[in-house]
Amino acid sequence: MRPVLAALAAALIAGPALAQAPAAPKVVTGAGEVKAIDAKAGSVTLHHGPIPAINWPAMTMKFKAPPEALKGLKPGQAVTFTLDPASNELTSVTPK
Ligand SMILES: [Cu+2]
Predict the structure, then answer these.
(1) Using CA atoms, how far apart are residues 89 and 63, in angstroms rounded to an integer?
(2) What pLDDT is recorded for position 54?
(3) For residue range 6-29, what is the model confidence (pLDDT) as tens digits?
(4) How far apart are CA 86 and CA 46, in angstroms?
(5) What is the whole-number distance in angstroms between the Cα of residue 19 and the centre of ligand 1?
(6) Ligand 1 centroid to 21 CA: how many Å?
(7) Ligand 1 mean position, distance from CA 8 (Å)
(8) How far apart are CA 30 and CA 81, in angstroms?
(9) Cα(48) to centroid of ligand 1, in Å?
(10) Which domains does the chain have, with CATH numbers?
């Protein structure tokens, strides 16, 4: 009985670690061009390059972003950005 319990205990301890998927990135960075800004909606449309960290090809899409990240942005501007892959919301946008 004792070896069985020991094996069970070992499996319980090892289980969660083994079940863990490869750590998803907490912050993802990308680069792109501003296509449109909607300050009222708190969103910006970017054409961004590929983002391998989250398997995204290049595309044009709308992102939610905090007001401070939208400040001073203009259509046509080249930017780098960070986004939270859990929500797909931008956390910062920096003109290049
Ligand atoms: Cu995209």
Answers:
(1) 6
(2) 94
(3) 665 555 555 555 556 666 678 999
(4) 18
(5) 29
(6) 23
(7) 45
(8) 5
(9) 6
(10) 28-95 (2.40.50.320)
